[in-house]
Amino acid sequence: MSSRRDRADDLRELMESEGEAIGGNTQLINQLTAENVGSFDRYEELREEARATKEAAIENLPDLIDRLEEAVSANGGQLHVAQDAADANRIIEEILDERGAEKLVKSKSMTTEELEVNDHLEPDYEVVETDLGEYVIQVADETPSHMIGPAMHKSAADIADLFNDAFDLEEPLSDDPAELTEFARERVGEHILDADAGMTGANFVVAESGSIMLVTNEGNARKTAVTPDTHIAVTGVEKVVPTVSDLQPFTELIARTGTGQDITSYVSLLSPPVDTPIPDFEADEFRPAEERDFHLVLVDNGRMAMREDEDLRETLYCIRCGACNNACANFQSLGGHGFGGETYTGGIGTGWEAGVHEMEGAGEMSELCTGCSRCVPKCPVKIDIPWINTVVQDRTNRDAEPGDFDFLVDGLTPDEEPSGLDLQKRFFGNIETVAKLGSLAPGLANALADTSLADWLLERFVGVDERRDLPEFAGETLREWYGARGPRVDDPDREVVLYPDLYTEYFEPERGKAAVRALEALGVRVRIPEVPESGRAPLSQGMVATAREQAERVHGALVGHVDDGRDVVIIEPSDLAMFRSDYEHLLPERSHERLAEHSYDVMEYIYGLLENGADADALAGPAGEGEGRGDERVAYHSHCQQRTLGVERYTTAVLEELGYELRESDVECCGMAGSFGYKSEYYEVSMDVGKRLRADLGDVAGEELVASGTSCRTQLDALYDRAATHPVELVAPETGSR
Amino acid sequence: MGTDRVATFEAELEGVSTVHRTAAADFEETLAGAIVEPAVGTDIPTEDVSLADTPVETAPSPADVLAAETGVTPAGLGVANYGTITLPASEEPREVVSLYCTRHVAVLAESDLVADMPAAYDRLSEDFAAGTDTQILATGPSSTADMGELLRGVHGPHETHVVVVTDR
């Protein structure tokens, strides 16, 4: 479809023009934050505190705003609550008029970007951004591409070209960052000296004392706040916390997750109007602080409604550190101009856009979220960002108008979704139905899928990129194999249910067979009942109602086994993530907890058996231990959700215990993430993301290429033109027979 | 314990900011080693410490501040495990002096050095409850990476020094 092609073209252009700068910058920050957080032993404790503070503050927000108003007036300032952008802009303009201000200097603030304050004021006032990144954006007449690094998509050479074009300079600037910084600092610095008013945001606002907190590395926020006699702070209502002491965990967290620093150069706590005298550089005198004027403009603009919205409420806990932007593999390729809505970008930006702007832009952003979950452990307030993206996708789906081809799929798809849902989403969300049909005659299905006619049909109607090879149906499903073979362990100590996930069941039964053999070798009796697809497929398309129905069916199929003392062993990490975390949103709490407590990654389960005394010699080891066994050296790529759950370490522990020499790739999401890389509009993004995995793993000649997730393995197959195996296939003993 | 705290503070600021330890009696001499003239400053409330007999101009005009190489102001608190100092404002132009000069020299009494951020916030909460309206938590010089590499001295000071008065 042409819109798919247009989208693919736009994304390709962005990857070419901004991808290199944004990729380099975000990956550097990720490295710094990982090192910092890794060596900070109170990270989890402070995250809990930070989250609890935000939860309580949002809960009590109306009361806190009342207390704040009293505190601000007691200090001699004025609080304004603006209902929407127009209201906020009107208030700001009135303040400037009243003070007779002509020139306004601004310190970086996403809230003022949201309000488009500059566009509103520029016809009548001189408005100058003082954060150097924001200044670059202002000169370029662009929008920020990152919450904390607005010009992160520009290289030093880009900035030199920009300044040389924009200003009439005697000597053109080189691309030396020091020269560019000095030039911008001087230009901006002069504006600050003769500005009539300064506008800042506020990272936090304290109800009890009327204080604001400003977090910066440049000194511009401090200068903006205290140099002119008029200070206007503009921020969202969600920034209010009760007391000064509540700021402590945030002070220790915000730079660690945002930039990888322990703390920024300046964390300013101000209860304006402040006592410091006003420097009048023109008259060369200090004027008395009594002449200072302070206005705090608290912006609602949809936030109070978000507070009432069970699924979007967590967005209000966001402290705008940008860590979710950086952690996102697709963001690393595209930057905020590809991943962004009108104002906010990447990760949590979808929640903000859905709350403060139109759903349309937010819907497009949420599609770029593959649900890989790497942003989850990075968020200093523990926001479930992938869930917010899923909810926004679901709402976008429900807003869609019925299409021309609905009749083609309505009868075939057993889902709970409204008509009008994009056919592509419906195809990927109902992949189990497709798989079941295909496996009835796998030979025929494979032959058909190989034809160019099938490629064309798939691309035309559901947007499967023809450059992708579709998975091939196995001649025999895992359950057909096991049904004919039967269990091989008599009188077992343990019995488990092996979850026959969609891919193992229909496309890759070999890894299921390996799991059976490995578990049996350690004395475990295995059952493989009929269990529906976990709901991962519809969930990844934002089809929440369908995913919930699937989750209920899965729970129904497994709960009896759990009640009988059987654990559930899972091969596919994205399904483990469903059982352990996503079902929290789809099932009643007790049902989710019961299933989560008894579900294990297959390698985690094997690790547990070995720890409890099972004999590792029963498993296959490196070369020589079994016929056809691969090399001793293993290049291993875990899986995003496995890493978020913290279970990837069991795979490495088991492989190392058995004697494999292991090296591991830890780049963000490989770029396949299930359906994502099959979609024609995202194929090139997925390959660009995959290039980083290729660069990180490097040459794998002479090594066994191993990956835990199906989508990661598919991506590795494409990147290396070579099949990757599941780790359980390395440890399963060959039995010689079925 | 106190000495350990100064050592932690120094270690945190290594390569970021220069720490000078001094007894009150040797303050003037130590300060002389930390400033580059012309220097401006504001009164230091620490007992037995004064700028009176130093080359620091303590009643500067805004133009003096812009022309100065060094600005000297008191620090409210030090936070040992971050290398952070707090800068309280007052009716003197402390904020402008600490912000506009190329080099900022803060004077901190060792007794105001706390171990960590929770301890600092206990004190900050008291300060704000008592009516303090500014506390800047400052750690090293101002910096930016907006033009492609980390650079110091952006809007704020390029270089920072902390004079720790060890017997106060």
Describe the overall structure.
The complex is a heterodimer of chains A (about 750) and B (about 170). In chain A, helix 17 packs antiparallel against helix 18 (about 360-365), helix 18 (about 360-365) packs across helix 19 (about 385-400) and helix 35 (about 685-695) crosses helix 36 (about 710-720). The longest helix of chain A has 20 residues, at about 20-40. Chain A is elongated. The relative contact order of chain A is 0.09. With about 750 residues, chain A is of the alpha/beta class. Chain A has 37 helices and 19 strands. Chain B is of the alpha/beta class and about 170 residues long. Chain B is about 25% helix and about 25% strand. Chain B has a five-stranded parallel beta sheet with strand order 1-11-6-3-2, with helices on both faces. A four-stranded mixed beta sheet of chain B has the order 7-4-5-8, sandwiched between helices. In chain B, strands 9-10 form a two-stranded antiparallel sheet. The radius of gyration of chain B is 15 Å and the shape is globular. The mean pLDDT of chain B is about 95. Classes of the chains: A alpha/beta (about 750), B alpha/beta (about 170). At the A-B interface, helix 8, helix 10, helix 11, helix 12 and strand 9 of A face helix 3, helix 4, helix 5, strand 8 and strand 9 of B. Strand 9 (about 265-270) of chain A pairs antiparallel with strand 8 (about 135-140) of chain B, so a sheet runs across the interface.
